[in-house]
């Protein structure tokens, strides 16, 4: 395996949506909650519903042969997994709502529900890049809720876009579409319903 291919695989693995979700819930929890023990508790709830359970779900589906690979390489096999993951996000939203979580935590969870649901339906006919969507949306949420300086993380889109292109997982249009629709949808959801 060439060095470039190894690098592309590492970038693709580190910036997969479930890992980015763990980071996002951590930053938002510790930015809006005090004391740190309370922030940790809410981060764990977010981690459970946005990282751990979706990851275990896709692994289980792959083990049972329902999908060919945990990376969901074929767009037609993405619909059911994405709908199930959307249901997990919805359950997480309900738990956070019942726990009276801060509005920003509810907002980012609503964005995960919306973006993943739309991604599921797009996958019926096209393989949009949910890897890129999984970075563009969270960075948009950080910029919206915390500070414009978080926009520097949009640079990760170029790095991840290169990795996905190099590994032949997506074409340029799928990468651009995943980035744009997630960023715009995230901004729209937060601005219309989950302002600070």
How is this fold's topology laid out?
Blueprint: H1 3-14, H2 17-32, H3 36-63, H4 79-98, H5 103-122, H6 130-145, H7 155-166, H8 172-193
Helix pairs in contact: 1-7, 2-3, 2-6, 3-4, 4-5, 5-6, 5-8, 6-7, 6-8, 7-8
Keywords, separated by commas or semicolons:
196 residues; mainly alpha; 8 helices; transmembrane helix; membrane; Phosphatase PAP2 family protein; transmembrane
Could you please describe the fold and organization of this structure?
With about 200 residues, the chain is mostly helical. Helices cover about 75% and strands about 0% of the residues. Helix 4 (about 80-100) packs antiparallel against helix 5 (about 105-120) and helix 6 runs parallel beside helix 8 (about 170-195). The radius of gyration is 16 Å and the shape is globular.
Query: What class do helices, strands and sheet pairing give?
Result: mainly alpha
Helical amount: over 70%
Distance between the termini: 47 Å
DSSP strand tally: 0
User: Any low-confidence stretches, pLDDT <50, length ≥5?
Assistant: none
- Give the overall shape: globular
The whole-angstrom Rg is: 16 Å
Overall pLDDT confidence: 96
SSE run = HHHHHHHH
How many structural domains does the protein architecture include? 1
Largest sheet: none
Number of helices: 8
Strand content: under 5%
Keywords: Membrane, Transmembrane, Transmembrane helix
Protein name: Phosphatase PAP2 family protein
Organism: Thermatribacter velox
Transmembrane segments: 7-28, 40-59, 79-99, 105-126, 138-160, 172-194
């Amino acid at each position: 395996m060439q060095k470039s291919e190894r690098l592309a695989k590492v970038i693709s693995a580190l910036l997969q949506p479930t890992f980015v979700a763990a980071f996002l819930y951590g930053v938002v929890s510790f930015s809006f909650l005090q004391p740190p023990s309370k922030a940790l508790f809410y981060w764990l709830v977010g981690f459970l519903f946005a990282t751990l359970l979706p990851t275990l779900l896709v692994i289980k589906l792959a083990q049972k042969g329902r999908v060919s690979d945990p990376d969901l390489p074929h767009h037609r096999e993405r619909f059911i997994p994405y709908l199930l993951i959307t249901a997990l996000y919805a359950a997480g939203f309900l738990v956070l709502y019942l726990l009276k979580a801060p509005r920003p935590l509810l907002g980012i969870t609503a964005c995960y529900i919306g973006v993943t649901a739309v991604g599921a339906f797009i996958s019926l006919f096209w393989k949009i890049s949910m890897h890129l969507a999984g970075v563009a949306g969270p960075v948009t949420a950080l910029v919206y809720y915390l500070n414009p300086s978080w926009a520097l993380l949009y640079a990760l889109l170029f790095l991840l876009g290169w990795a996905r292109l190099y590994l032949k997982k997506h074409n340029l249009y799928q990468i651009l579409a995943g980035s744009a629709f997630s960023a715009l949808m995230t901004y729209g959801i937060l601005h219309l319903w989950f302002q600070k």
